[in-house]
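Exam review. A common question shows you a sequence with its structure tokens and asks you to describe the fold in words. Practice with the pair below. Do the first one on your own.
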Amino acid sequence: MNFELISPETTDELLKVISERRGKRFRFGAGGTDLLLELKKQPEKDLTVVNLANLNDERFTSIETQDDGFRIGALVTAGGIAANHGLKKQFAVLCEAANRLASRQIRQVATVGGNLCTASPAGDIACALMALEARCEILSARGMVRTIPINDFFVGVRKTDLKRDEILRSVLIPPNNESKKIYSDFIKIGTRRSMECSVVSLAYHIQADEDDKITHAGIAIGSVAPTIQFVKSACDYLAGKNFSSIGLSEAEEFAAKVLEYASPISDIRASAFYS
């Protein structure tokens, strides 16, 4: 693989690089777990790889608790998420998704930004963040920042809303309401037990009061549509129900509402019928 490698250390340097190469071919890289495989399969001529691994801006690299939730930098690794006690306590779905990603070695280098910007419908961390109704903070080469719902970030298979002069800086997770109980997890099915992309995945983050009445539900499904889907009507259906008293008929109706968002295809991993 032949490409020019640039490693900015400050955000100003990064924005200058983006601005200078706006009309040229360049790719961002951090952990490189996806990028290197892509370039090995399909080499690109006259390509510049902007290596983000040395960037020292905490808005890119840290996990911060804020009054309005958590901020997770795009360069935070899956391993960093899985080990964060604050996230484990409040958003188990995200930590479980991070912990199910690939292998221990890959989790130490694979980043949140890489998982989102690859825009794979099988993205584990992306699916969990969709269930959490996160927002994406996007920085342009001009230093302007815009924030959009994660549901608007994915626009197609491996396509995002990012413009040529923009980069994902961080992800914002809203706080839980004053719930007494939280049911939060990530379920993933693959063709083997580890080191595998999801054939189908489901992320859920359900909040309930002291009587187990559901006050808010966030549920997302992956690998069954061109983009990860937030199953809104299924979430709305759960609102107000007693979580521990949901019966078989209600569960079946809920499942039917989830399936409304699925449009799987047959591919190398599984048939459409299986998914």
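Now try the second one, then compare your answer with the model answer below.
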Amino acid sequence: MDLWVGLVIGLGVLGFSLSLWIVIPAPVLSLLPLSVGAPEISPGLLVLNALALAGGLGLLKRFPLRSSMSWWILALMGMSAIALTLSSIPLRQLGAARQQVEQQMVQVLGADYGQRLPAAVQGRLRSQPFSFWDSFRGVPIPEVRETLGVTFASPDGVPLKLNVYRPERVGRYPAIVTIYGGGWQRGSADDEGAFNRYLAAQGYAVWAISYRHAPEYRFPAQLEDVVAAIAFIRDHADDYETDIDRVALVGRSAGAQLAMLAGYGVSPVPIRAVVNYYGPVNLTEGYNNVPVPDPIESRLVLETFLGGPPTALPELYQQASPISKLKPGLPPSLLIYGGRDNVVQAKYGAGLARALEAEGNAAVFVSMPWADHAFDAVFQGVSNQFSLYYVERFLAWALHQG
């Protein structure tokens, strides 16, 4: 077997193996990066599989028809054709997903929501929900100022730190508070640095905060830390060029649960908007009806966070469930979920959107049928580009008007 044959076979096997994870859910935590990442790198997989298919066509010319080698090549080409189909799924679903979200944005925010923004803000927004080129080169992020490792509280002697990201130009900016995920057990304010810098370059003071982790500290310690961080931001707003009258909360997974609880009731300052990336909504329901497969062992995660099952701690589970905090007059919410998420299923986000609307609140539900949990870990990925397009418009609408 010469080098060219080995290369084509290698490309075909690699492309097929990775493309399968676009449709196969991760059964265990160790395989979750494959299930999360495969749809996000699908443009690259599309190119890889096309090259493998073209390489197979080239090899066919080198071997006699109906020879044993030609049959192997045909099998490889069939595998590459299947992989090519799989790797095209996210891009083929983009159009319908965009249409659904656009309809909601217009319905909730108004037909002219984009035109009502200041011209300078409009000029910084992404021009389209997906750029094939950006999926390879990365999403451009201008330079911003960073103030890292600021201690905002020390509950029980545990120093809690935050990072502040601001535009290059000195000014006074709306605030975005970002809260990381990690099952309430891991993570730091340094997480999601690309996202925080990107939003800062859009014209915001972005505060990435931290909180104490389970199992050493159980709920509501994490929410108390979020409230303490917001109070610190309020008290030091002038030091960091922050307009405390224009604040939005953005959380991911466990951080989204905390963002919703703070934004829907206990924040020490008024909140203009909440952005929920795949956050838990009803913890009792999440415990009683775990997804299949369940790669993170959801019940163990919830018991670690809350101290036991809902049968033993029903009131605590309710207290920790954002769905129980709904009432009229809540800040507008953007709810972003992946249709293939087997950690926090999209049906909970859809149900939360309906419940918010039933109370007269503004809510936009962004569903990406190809995406898994934590899709935005691949910053230039299909799903993050798509969601970022609407996040920046939603935040601009909420924070740059009025």
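Model answer, second protein: Residues 248 and 273 are 5 Å apart (CA to CA). The chain has a mean pLDDT of 96. Full marks require stating both points clearly.
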